[in-house]
Amino acid sequence: MYREISSELFTWKNRENRKPLIVRGARQVGKTYLIEEFARMHFKNCVTVNFEEQVELKALFKNFDVDRILDELAILFSTTISTGNTIIFFDEIQACPEAIVSLRYFYEKHPHLHVIAAGSLLDFTLREMNYSMPVGRVEFCYMYPMNFKEFLLALSQEKLISYIEDYEPNRDFSQVIHQRLLEYLRVYLFVGGMPEAVKTYITQKQLAEVERTHSQILTALQYDFAKYGTKQQQDHLRSVFRYCARNVGKKVKYTNVEREVRSENLKQAFQRLQLSRLIHLVHHTNADRIPLLNGIKENVYKSLFLDIGLANHLSAIRLIKLEDILTNNEGALAEQFIGQELLLLAPPYLDSKLYYWTREERNASAEIDYVFQWNNYLFPIEVKAGKTGSLKSMHIYLFEKKFKTALRFNIDRPNIGTFRTKVNARGKQSEIEFNLLSLPLYMCFQLPRLINKLQLAG
Hints:
Helix content is 40%, strand content 21%. It is α/β, with parallel strands linked by helices. It folds into two domains: 6-142, P-loop containing nucleotide triphosphate hydrolases (Rossmann fold, 3-Layer(aba) Sandwich); 150-454, no CATH class. The chain has a five-stranded parallel β-sheet with strand order 2-3-4-1-5, sandwiched between helices. Helix 8 packs across helix 14 and helix 10 packs across helix 14. The protein is globular. It starts with 5 loop residues before the first helix and ends with a helix.
């Protein structure tokens, strides 16, 4: 199955000043398959060291003499390692911290050799290991579950993708095609973007088998909790893991996770799950200009789960007949979907972060689902599960921040317009005028193109 991040690997391969590349992402998002397929297509041979399966090979890194390491790898794999023809792939590199450190010396002594690594718990290992990270000697790219476009590609729906990509603002959008896209979107909401689940759906067409795959993936992900510390810490991780799947879009309150557990223990569990990339924390920001980090409150955040299909499975939603599934959290599903899509809009070499805005005042509370940055402009985003819905919070945000453009995702066809409305804020009534770009949920991957096309500023 095609992954868009492949183009980043190709760019890395051909760049003169490249460094050893570390692909970071949660377990089972497809890192190993991606790299092995890339190696098969672009190199004569690939030397793959999996540090979880080939534990004995850790001994190769007793010191950082990379010439010796390369000689011994060539002997062990009965191959010739040559620049331009060979790629060295260190899989599950978090299991051998010394191999992470060795990347510095590969870069310094063999800068033209292609060296790539992947690890599912890499962030946690880098924080805990007793070695310094080879800063400036390696580069990173970040991998996530398949987005909706990749899902459509896997279903051989290239023409639907082309229709979306050819869409011009203010042009009529076919109602029939829109309806077909909503049908595929609903499938994606419950199958999700984990490659194995998508493959199961495509090859077997049985939702029960997709459920089985989801269960196996979740079991494997939670199996790793044994690596995080004491049994009590593992229990906290499981509680937070389940909480995040079932409470997308809600401000995190530790008492709602486990009332009897100290807040500090639960906070650590959230942080560890974020380091393992199983969840993403969406921090509140009050910034009205970049950088968004200047306005964040570290202890005010929502959580986004790794994958929407897995989140639904943990919420005990049975995949019997997708068109008949009605849930009490349709809004949360839409917010989870858009969050996953937004993470993939940034270039793969950037570690995407998500933000939202909230104001909690008596009789004057307001919340914006996401605050999105593009081209050094900020855009408030509202996500709706239906076609209509109040934009009261959006109006307040636009008034307070003096922004001129808002974004909305819902299940209606795309449109853009300029609106005037009255806003009750800070005890008085004012009038604002703003542009609203409204897109169907499935069109999120086209957001940057349309912002550029329309020359929108926040």
